Amino acid sequence: MENDTLKPNVGGARKIARKLLKDSKVVEIPVSLQKVLDHVKSQQDLDVVKYNFGDKISGMLVSIGDSATIGFNSEHAWVRRRFTIAHELGHLYMGHTCSGTDNAGNKEVEANQFAAELLIPLAFIKKDFAKQRDLDTLGKKYVVSKEAMCRHLMECKIL
User: Please, are residues 70 and 88 in contact by the beta-carbon 8 Å criterion?
Assistant: First the structure.
């Protein structure tokens, strides 16, 4: 049983996202989520499907054996769908599973950190933020929401 007082492994989540970017040969912004997904699919059985989950669910990961499916809410804005898919990839790559005893809060933080680093790599945003501080402009460049951009900049202590 996990200890609920353990802190989320933020550094580990970011490190795994950076490795996935490298392995996917992503070298420019905006990150091609399709390129990342194509790489993941070349390594394992993954399906990504759109679904109308209603207002309360952004996405989910279902993993059975060596197969996984990411479902994302087809009704959400494109930037949110991108983040949701990246978030669910985070759960997959970090080996998160659901059970009554695990610390879901920490897993959500880790998946969010993974997604933010995957879509807004620190190596790129440090340079871009030095040149451009407008969060709307940066969000558009990285194809993420202004909120996701702001949170990542604050969590990385850039803002």
Answer: yes
